[in-house]
Design goal:
The chain is an alpha+beta fold. It has three domains: 3-77, RNA polymerase II/Efflux pump adaptor protein, barrel-sandwich hybrid domain (OB fold (Dihydrolipoamide Acetyltransferase, E2P), Beta Barrel); 92-172, E3-binding domain (Dihydrolipoamide Transferase), CATH 4.10.320; 180-381, Chloramphenicol acetyltransferase-like domain (Chloramphenicol Acetyltransferase), CATH 3.30.559. It has ten helices and 16 strands. The strands form four sheets. The protein has a six-stranded mixed beta sheet, sandwiched between helices. A hairpin with a 2-residue loop joins strand 12 and strand 13 (262-268). It starts with a strand and ends with a helix.
Length: 384
């Protein structure tokens, strides 16, 4: 039985994906889990894997093509089997546009004429938002989507095609940078953030790293210790669904990794039960593939709590923005020697500053403070 291969979606706001290249050609025998194509989304460049064994057939998209999310781009069939013939139908987005147009026809004729000049029904919400940001007149943009619908890619292409202005303009953002700007703005303006700061003596953390060797980093230790602490504080590992709190059954730590033009949250699943060596190996693999643009969908989805460590850049402390739908993010600064009181005397200790950003819709101040206290104690003892 034929199995469809569709353009994947990693974000609710994602509308399209671009085919970078096919790693298999039509007629090739493929195995489940084998990479089929390289796909560029608003978030990352990733490898699309086969979901079944069979033969690649009915390839519908060529390298460079921009395809709507959920649209079939190829089939996996049994040897000798032909791919199904699909009936073309309007996408949900196109149907929504039609409903909007029908509703618009009931209003005053002057407003209808205004909408006809820049027809909202022919542009996706993302395209309209990008057009406003980039100063693009939608009436001059040719849509390549279903029924001539203007997509975000169409707006971006139109912005790039404009003659260079005499005066300098802000550069057009890359897909990753644009998405990061959209998501951080959404989080900052919708999630009621509050922040708690804690300084700890990092002597135990340093000793733990020396004990395990140079292959283990402070970030590896942070992932393991924070994950184990989250088990005792399930609300800190929860998600906001838009109307309710969802307690997540697994502790999946998302690590903020700097890539070209942005930051990607790469996920270490089941970090609370994973061995420290396995966490280290997984983190190194994710970091290398993130910077090479070779992450897979499972690598960037399912995170329940984020750790952002900027200590390696010499940053003392900072506040991070929550990644929806997560409830919190822990921002970690560098370890620096400071003069502090030690048993009533003056001493020098390596001090680490942590800042916990929390969503007040999910947790209150006392709950977040209790969690941060337990994190501080776990890092101070660093028993792993």
């Amino acid at each position: 039985m034929a199995v469809s291969i569709v353009m994947p979606a990693l974000e609710m706001a994602q509308e399209t994906g671009k085919i970078i290249s096919w790693l298999k050609k039509e007629g090739d025998t493929i195995a489940k889990g084998e990479p089929l194509a390289e796909i560029e989304t608003d978030k990352v460049v990733l490898e699309l894997e086969a979901t079944a064994d069979g033969v690649l057939a009915g390839v519908k998209a060529a390298p460079g093509d921009v395809v709507q999310v959920g649209k079939i781009i190829a089939w996996i069939v049994a040897p000798g089997e032909k791919p199904p013939v699909e009936a073309e139908s309007a996408t949900p987005a196109a149907r929504t546009m039609t409903d909007q147009t029908r509703a618009a026809s009931t209003v005053a004729s002057t407003a209808a004429v205004s909408r006809q000049e820049v027809p909202e029904a022919k542009a996706s919400p993302k395209a309209r938002r990008m057009a406003k940001e980039l100063g693009v007149d939608l009436s001059n943009v040719r849509g390549t989507g279903p029924g001539g619908t203007i997509s975000g890619e169409d707006v971006e292409a139109a912005a790039k095609a404009r003659p260079a202005p005499v005066a300098a303009e802000p550069a057009v953002l890359s897909s990753i940078a644009r998405l990061m700007a959209e998501r951080t703005t959404q989080s900052w303006t919708t999630a009621p953030h509050f922040f708690l700061v804690r300084e700890i003596d990092a002597s135990g953390l340093i000793a733990a790293r020396e004990k395990h060797g140079k292959a283990i980093t402070h970030t590896d230790l942070l992932v393991a210790l924070v994950a184990r602490t989250l088990v005792k504080h399930p609300k800190m590992n929860a998600s906001w669904t838009g109307s309710a709190i969802q307690l997540n059954p697994n502790v999946n730590i998302s690590i903020a990794i700097a890539v070209k033009d942005g930051v990607v949250g790469a996920v270490i699943p089941h970090a609370d039960t994973a061995k420290l060596a396995d966490i280290s190996t997984k983190r190194q693999d994710l970091a290398e593939r993130a910077r090479a643009g070779r992450l897979h969908p499972p690598d960037v989805t399912g995170g329940t709590f984020t750790i952002s460590n900027l200590g390696m850049f010499g940053v003392d402390a900072f506040s991070a923005i929550i990644t929806p739908p997560q409830a919190a993010v822990l921002a970690v600064g560098r370890i620096v020697d400071r003069v502090v009181p030690v048993n009533g005397l003056i001493g020098i200790r390596p001090i680490l500053t942590m800042t916990l950003s929390s969503d007040h819709r999910v947790v209150d101040g006392a709950q977040a403070a209790a969690f941060l206290k337990d994190v501080a104690e776990a890092l101070t003892s660093a028993q792993l």
